[in-house]
Amino acid sequence: MATDYYAVLGVRRDAGPDEIKKAFRRLARELHPDVNPDPKTQERFKEINAAYEVLSDPQKKQVYDLGGDPLSAAGGGGGAGGFGAGFGNFSDIMDAFFGQSSQRGPRSRTRRGQDAMIRLEIELDEAAFGTTKDIQVDTAVTCGTCNGEGAAPGTSAQTCDMCRGRGEVSQVTRSFLGQVMTSRPCPQCQGFGTVVPTPCPECAGDGRVRSRRTLTVKIPAGVDNGTRIQLAGEGEVGPGGGPAGDLYVEIRELPHAVFQRRGDDLHCTVTIPMTAAALGTKCPLETLDGLEEVDVRPGTQSGQSIPLHQRGITHLRGGGRGDLIVHVEVVTPHKLDADQEELLRRLAKLRGEERPTGQFAPGQQGLFSRLKDAFNGR
Fold first, then answer.
1. Total domains, the chain
2. Tens of pLDDT along 12-47?
3. Which residues form the CR-type domain (predicted)?
4. Would 122 be classed as within a structural domain?
5. Annotated binding site for Zn(2+)
6. Phi, psi of 288 (to 5 degrees)
């Protein structure tokens, strides 16, 4: 019976190349003879290598899936019991066991910098209409002494004499497979391929220094708590004078003494006496757009709301603004003198007739006016 290579690696028959490779590497780390010298484990290691040899090669995999002999069809020599053509994938075994990368050569000293973030507090009116702010940021910038190279003035980086500029060193070891060559980053140059004999005294060879600078940020109308504004290229400069990351400005809106924000609408509360609620009045209110009068209609009840359209926050996306919702709170007097109490008793007697809210029976209008004057001390 033909060997089920999918079962050997523990993957489904529709598994993709990445899933097959991941399964092989996991098994190779567990079963490598240098880790587990048991003879049964060595046989199992050969099986997973043979399975990966077939399933990682598109042509061999196609032949195998059609029921043919993939090793014979591809001209492979070893069969399922040996490595044969499997040595073509030997780097995958080394990658799995030693954690190496298939990429070769020195790595660059120049890398992109990290992103940075600061928080900016703004007032409600600034969030509503937008504003411009100057902010202080403390980030890494390119060293002006060495211009990001990391070497002291008059000197430069030199080729590493240990790896000869390759950024890696090789080591030959013996195993049951024979001689095995492995490569690792050079310990002298840390894989860069060059060394800096005389680092820059200003940045200690990093190519960047900390600096405080002032930036001008445009805050668009309609921002809210947590809104982040991206300033491209204003973050941390990378090592070796690499390109800078981005700076994110996170908005924090300060509480307002009068208005509460809910989305793009504003809410506030005005307090009026019961006589004003019964007779109606005009209540002055300082809005974000200036002083306006709120029209309180006769018969307004406590808890009712009066909308002032287009007096809220500017929509961040799209035109227009939210509304200002004015909540009315009617105050009932708790201390009455004799005249006030008498007037209220007379009013209660007159209100014995049922009438729609906001309408007065004959004599009630004048009595309410007298009651209003009494409460106002006139």
1. 4
2. 888 888 888 888 888 887 777 666 677 777 788 888
3. 130-212
4. yes
5. 143, 146, 160, 163, 186, 189, 200, 203
6. -65, -20
